[in-house]
């Protein structure tokens, strides 16, 4: 391992290891062709861009992305949007698909195993610290602040934590901590979550962000790999072991959350269900959104396609190209269509007499004439047939499309094709 100069920023001595192999099965058909971190979000970006942008904006220039499930879309996005790292500046971004590097029969067996199988690559970076990140959450965070807290405390692991209402904490891995922030117990989805010191109504929940000294984690991973009873997972195996035998510290998200002047509360979302995905996108259309994407001091980097500006045409009663309280991306043409409280990704075409309300429309969708679409998510490249009505008749929506209990409708091309084959 290379010597570290004492005047270096901590982030220059660290690497980000992003776990991006999960399917995200609760997103249903949205992840049939892509992993959850590759799902589109916010008009231009993908979900993984938030973790990577946080690392980049925090000063981290060494990153690795472990992929597994249906990774082509994700890898292509990485190659197109994140290929600006230069080795001659000591910058690296490696894509690490599960490629049977250790055994011909062994894919990534768990989150910890994804790091274990790439120990030699992490070694080659010559880093002192490793930040393990989930690649499927929406938030803005300065990892340098968390890294400094880790170093100051002398912890074996520092875990990023959210403050959540105790009644909602059963869906998370949660921590019991003492007054100093030291974790005394790590519980995976407990029925009766513990309260926080001085705040019994709230619980600290894991964000899936872990900071380790690399040498400590390296030794731990090697021992874990030899344990036949381990599931080789950070949350199930390694973290509880450190809590029991070492020093684990909690770092509260509010201490390192990046906020502009418009954001009132720390913003973190797991957009892992159709409802949550729809809501987080629609929230961006609010007059003052909870997440400020317009904050140029903390940009969300992504692959920026070279496309013409959005265009609005026709100005007649009943046929007016218009958008109200909506985000409309480049290469969209709103042609005599009415768009309200919606988010349109790149290349959407909305034709005359159609309407979109509370709609999240992924790239290159075509909405044909007189279609009326409300409370829906439309997958990439879908061609909406003329006159289709969605969001008015729950039974009809559920007959052809995936409708959630709260009334959000997911539309894919396969669903449209089945409907067209039967309706004629």
From TrEMBL:
Annotated ranges, domain Glucose-1-phosphate adenylyltransferase/Bifunctional protein GlmU-like C-terminal hexapeptide: 308-411
Keywords from the named record: ATP-binding, Carbohydrate metabolism, Glycogen biosynthesis, Glycogen metabolism, Nucleotide-binding, Nucleotidyltransferase, Transferase
A Pfam family this chain is assigned to: NTP_transferase
Site entry: Could play a key role in the communication between the regulatory and the substrate sites: 68, 107
EC number: 2.7.7.27
Biological or metabolic pathway of the protein: Glycan biosynthesis; glycogen biosynthesis
InterPro entries xref list: ADP-Glc_PPase (IPR011831), ADP_Glu_pyroP_CS (IPR005836), GlgC_bac (IPR023049), GlmU/GlgC-like_hexapep (IPR056818), NTP_transferase_dom (IPR005835), Nucleotide-diphossugar_trans (IPR029044), Trimer_LpxA-like_sf (IPR011004)
MF terms (GO), sorted A to Z: glucose-1-phosphate adenylyltransferase activity
Cited CDD domains: ADP_Glucose_PP (cd02508), LbH_G1P_AT_C (cd04651)
Domain of life of the organism encoding this protein: Bacteria
Binding residues annotated for alpha-D-glucose 1-phosphate, in chain numbering: 108, 173, 188-189, 206
Residue stretches making up the Nucleotidyl transferase domain: 16-285
Catalytic activity reported: alpha-D-glucose 1-phosphate + ATP + H(+) = ADP-alpha-D-glucose + diphosphate
Enzyme class: transferase
Subunit note: Homotetramer.
Function: Involved in the biosynthesis of ADP-glucose, a building block required for the elongation reactions to produce glycogen. Catalyzes the reaction between ATP and alpha-D-glucose 1-phosphate (G1P) to produce pyrophosphate and ADP-Glc.
PANTHER family: GLUCOSE-1-PHOSPHATE ADENYLYLTRANSFERASE, GLUCOSE-1-PHOSPHATE ADENYLYLTRANSFERASE-RELATED
Family: Belongs to the bacterial/plant glucose-1-phosphate adenylyltransferase family.
Protein name in UniProt: Glucose-1-phosphate adenylyltransferase
Natural source organism: Paracoccus pacificus
